[in-house]
Structures are given as structure tokens and as C-alpha cells.
Amino acid sequence: MKLGGLEVGAGSAPLVIAEMSGNHNQSLERALEIVDAAAKAGAHALKIQTYTAETMTLDIREREFFISDEKSLWEGESLFDLYKKAYTPWEWHEAIFERAKKLGMIAFSTPFDDTAVDYLEQLNVPCYKIASFENTHIPLIRRVAATGKPMIISTGMATFAELDETVEAAKSAGCKDLVLLKCTSTYPSTPDDSNILTIPEMRKRYGCEIGLSDHTMGIGVAVAAVALGATVIEKHFTLHREDGGVDSTFSMEPHEMAQLVIETERAWQAMGKVQDGTTEKEKSSLVFRRSLYVVEDMKVGDTFTAKNLRAIRPGYGLAPKFYDEVIGKKVKRDVARGTALSHDLIA
To answer: Where is pLDDT greater, at 75 or 160?
Structure first.
């Protein structure tokens, strides 16, 4: 399949998506710097999010609308204030998308309601992302699928039963190109909570491209995911974690993103195919195997013994597996020390 003209699948290097999220810290200048840094690091795509605080929740600063979980990065914030701080102003979208496209990246967004989809359609985005927290929002899934554009859906928190409904809704509403991203919706996540062995099971179950939306630190989980068949990798991205921001704590810096792009491609290259035997490039190394050599001068009729026959390098003689068979037999003619043993020397 293709996303914005780029091939996605086992035949291509993993597509790496840099997720800006709210790391622009309400500065368009910083947002554009993030786009520039993502392109320089080699990311293939740049993603933002399209919503307003009003379309996400109610302006209530108590009860369930207030984050009091001590384990949350956002403890002490109301949902409304958090989304107000994190949202990307809609009037910035076009400038961000244009900068990304100019630098050779795919540029798209995650919509959170119908008004966001309508706006993104005006900007002619090449594809859509559905966030983990929206993967059971079937009306939104159907609305996005109806555009006919490729969809990327994060699977965080969802059961297979829920994903069955999500995938069915997307396909029945018109989605022909679908990518599911294995995701753990904790921020940051840990490797032991990533469960990336789910990736091949998802591919088998849903018959579509599978990737990883990764909230762990570092690149190890993403590289391992590629080895398990992930064809898309999404990571949150910022200029400097120390600059702060709603998602900065679990976001990659530019040098880390560059390493991610390189190492996931290497992992993809290393997968290759099921191999039996010597590769073309290994053939020249065959001579460095051990083989049977005469290690003392011998006269015709002499007996091969452990003293005059050894398995040594290089590999021009008979294979070592013939050693026991040859010991005790006689040599057909005079041979000099350092002669590779061949069948025609054995009486």
C-alpha cells in the first residue's frame, strides 16, 4: 500500500513518523523548527493533532474532569486546560503541512471529531491517524473511512474484540488501505509493557500492515518490532526534552530520531529471507574453513595417521568429516608437507 506516495510494506524500509503533538509549546516558530528537525533527522512523515479543548471535553475543573492520578504526567491539570495547552491552532496546519511537504515528508493529522475531519479534507491530507483513545469511537472511524483515504489506527487499550469492530467499521465505510499500530497507552511506556509479540498475531488476524506507536524511551523496542514485521514506526518528537511541553518527557530528540531511522532500516534489511547455505558474499570465505592436509612428507604406501594428517586451515582439502575414514589408509604416491588431501591421494 501507499501513504502519500510512499510504499509501506515488507518490501520497503519502515516508514518513520515524527509525532509533534503539543511539543510546539504554542509557538508556530517552534512548530516549524520541529518540522525542519524531523526532516533533517530522516523522518518520512510528520503528524500533528487536530482538535480544540471544546471539542474534546467540558470546561469543568473538578471530579472526573480533573486529573488527580499521581502516576500521570499531567496530574493537577483539568482535561480542558490540558487540551487547551496541547492543541495545535488550526490556522497553523497549512503552514506546518506545507513546510513538511517542501522538505519531502508526508504531512497529516489525527482528527478527534467530524469538524476536524472536515477541516483536514479542505487541506487535502493524504491519510489519517486515529488515536488509541478514539479507536472505539465508531462514528469517527466511519467518518474518516468515508474519505477513502488510508487510515492508521493505534490500538492502545483495545481488546481484539474491540479491534474487530473497529476494523470492520473502517472497511465497511470505505477504507481500503489500513495500518494498525501496536500501542501501549502509558506515557512513557516501558519495554516490558510493550508486548510486541502481538504484532505478527495482528497481521495474521487482520491481514493488513502492522506497525508500532512507541512511547518507550530509546529505540530498542522499535527495532525489535521491525524484526517482528512492523512496517510503520511512530514516535513523539521534540527539539529538546528539557524545553518542557505536554509530551516532552517521552519524546525523541533529533539525534535519537536519526538513529531510529537508521537502525530500523538496518533491522528491516537484516530480516532478508529464510536462507539455506552460503550467500554469494560468503563464498570467498569458504577457503577459511578447516580441511584435511598432509602435515608431514609422505612416501607412497605410507599410512595416514594422527601425526601426518590434520584438519587445518585453509579449506582446499577434503572436509574434516572424512578424517576417521582416512586414518589407517595408505597414500597412493609421494606427497609433500602442506598438500591438501583429495580422494585421488588415498589408496
So the answer is: 160
